[in-house]
Amino acid sequence: MKKRTFAAGAAVLAVIAAALAWSYPLWHTAYLICSLVKSESIGCQIQVALEQERLSNGQKQFLQTLSWILGIEETDCFKWRAEGTLFDSQGYAQLYCDAFKKPLTELYFSEGSTLVNIRMLYQRLQENFTKEHPLLGTMLPDWKYGAYISLEQIEELFQADLKELFQGNASASIKEQSFWKNLLMLKSMKRQKTRDGDWQFQTIWNHYGIALKTGKSNEGKSFAEVRGVNGEKSRQIKSFVFLFSSEEEKAIEIPDSVMKTEEIRQFQKLWQVLKGFTEGRK
What's the rounded mean pLDDT across residues 178-195? Predict the structure, then answer.
């Protein structure tokens, strides 16, 4: 009788151990995501590759003009990256074109609002344009307007829909998830071990093949990496990588030096002149 009881107890323990071993990657990953969300600030690195065939004519023309001013190949304008911080429903990021080590501009964003440092962008364009086209560079006046412009205003200025190229909802969706929601989400995803021994979760979302990996850095900071690839060429964003990491508190102050309507109209005239040069090269 004792042998049977012992055997039954051992079998139950074996089942529990197996269940814990199977579920460990699920609840451990869910815990790391929640730990990351509860961080004082979240460091954010984003890489985006654009799908040329899916861009609108306005977007293509904007990137074509940009590449000519910067003196780079047009294909170099299809890869962008951003580095910044998320804090208390606000964010800050520096925006890089893949061809340059220095940022082209910076962005501040909060719920429903995005501000772009147009002065910084103009000064970088002016600097590179003068290097590539010394004679034409003398035509560009020094900046004398407000420093920032809203994303809606910059779309009107450049006559191109840029919102989808700037905005990503991965950070918002992560912050909205609770431990149990994360657990249920992970349970529905395929999982496998990577070469470095971490667990990776995979699924299909909005036509993207998504891969999620979490872990701890050497400094003990939680991180989450989200990769997405669109193999059907059905979206303007061909692929993306989001890397979030826990950071110490970094408060963000939204600037108030915004361009006035009249200033935007004056700058728009200058942009039309630059577009004219680009169209003349076709």
Answer: 68
Give the up-direction half-sphere exposure of residue 13: CA atoms within 13 A in the CB hemisphere. 6
Q: Are 134 and 71 in contact (CB under 8 A)?
A: no
Q: What is the pTM of this model?
A: 0.78
Give the whole-angstrom CA distance, residue 174 versus residue 41: 14
Note the pLDDT tens digit of each residue in 88-129.
Answer: 878 899 999 888 888 999 999 887 788 899 889 888 888 887
153 pairs with which residues across the strands? none
For 7-10, the CB contacts below 8 A with 24+ separation are none
- The single residue listed with the structure tokens 């307007």 is 145
Q: Is 129 helix (H, G, I), strand (E, B) or coil?
A: helix
Interior angle at CA 36, CA 30 and CA 39, nearest 5: 145
Beta-bridge partner residues of 116: 107, 149
